[in-house]
Amino acid sequence: MLKNELEKRFFPYVIKPGRYAGGEPGTVTKDPTGKTLYCHAFPDKYEIGQSYLGLQAIYHIINSDDRFVCERTFAVDIDAEEILRKENLPLFSLESFRDINEFDAVGFTLSYEMVFTNLLNMLNLAGMPIRSKDRNDSHPIIMAGGPAAYNPEPMADFIDLFFIGDAEEGLIEMLEILHTLKGKTKKEKLLTIAQKVQSVYIPAFYDVNRKPIEKSSPKEIFARVQPELKREYYPDHPIVPLVETVHEHLAVEIMRGCPQGCRFCQAGPIYRPVRMKPVE
After folding, report:
1. Is 0.85 topped by the overall pTM?
2. Contact 41, 74 (CB under 8 A)
């Protein structure tokens, strides 16, 4: 098992093993039998990614559905990368120490442009081809979302599927299709997602002029807006890190979007319209 190899050849030699060991209060472990396996990948250090409220929400929403398993992985630090490469060990998930290649889909949060190279490095550490066209049906479908996905073209050669906008419901819709189409080809899965899920951009289905070459692909893609920030999107028992993170506190989303409209702010146009949660 990969876990045994990591315990012998990885964890004793990294500077901060708590970044990679999992087991935090609030984590979910499931029997994967018959389930669709999704790994949420944050292309930055654990201390940054585990402070991100969106990761907590996605983790909770997916694991609340008995059809799916959601696990996590993060960009490893320089010392850990050196050991993984030296020992020929793959990038792995924190919950089950499963090789990333064993998941049905891996979804990356593109928080800002500086993580693009981290994402490519994570694919390389996982031992899979970096470019989408070089990956086959044996590889997981590589998804991306988050603020920097609103301009997907810089990463279009590397990502199978971009989801633009609020993902609380859209991600479940995509996983439902992957669950139903288990055993089908990558193209069959992507065609069905393009046909049935709004706010999805699949670069392989467009020509060099960004014109659709598949009937199911829309000419224009609009960001998904979640009109209501539902209570059930937020975990009753969020993951509590066992190592110090950049935000050493519980995060609570009281609103999405901002009424100020500052011209320099990326979040203003991305997260509009403003949606306030009731005080109670």
Report:
1. yes
2. yes
Give which of 242, 245, 247 is closest to 17, Cα–Cα: 242
Residue 103, pLDDT above cutoff 90: yes
Domain boundaries, the chain: 2-248
C-alpha Rg value of the chain to the nearest Å: 18
DSSP code per residue over 120-141: HHHHHHTTS-SSGGG--TTSPE
In this structure, what DSSP letter does residue 203 have?
G
Per-residue confidence (pLDDT) for residue 173, from 0 to 100: 98
Identify the burial level of 25 via C-beta atoms within 10 angstroms of its C-beta, where 0-12 means exposed, 13-18 middle and 19 or more buried: exposed
What pLDDT score does 96 carry? 97
Please tell me the distance from the alpha carbon of residue 243 to that of residue 173, in angstroms, as a whole number.
34
Question: Which phi and psi (to 5°) does residue 237 adopt?
Answer: -125, 80
Distance separating alpha carbons of residues 230 and 122, to the nearest angstrom: 33
- Taking each continuous run of H as one helix and of E as one strand, the counts in the chain are 8, 8
Max Cα separation, the chain? 53
* Domain formed by 2-248, architecture: 3-Layer(aba) Sandwich (3.40)
Q: Which residue type, as a one-letter code, is found at position 280?
A: E
User: Which position has the token pair 């929400």?
Assistant: 57
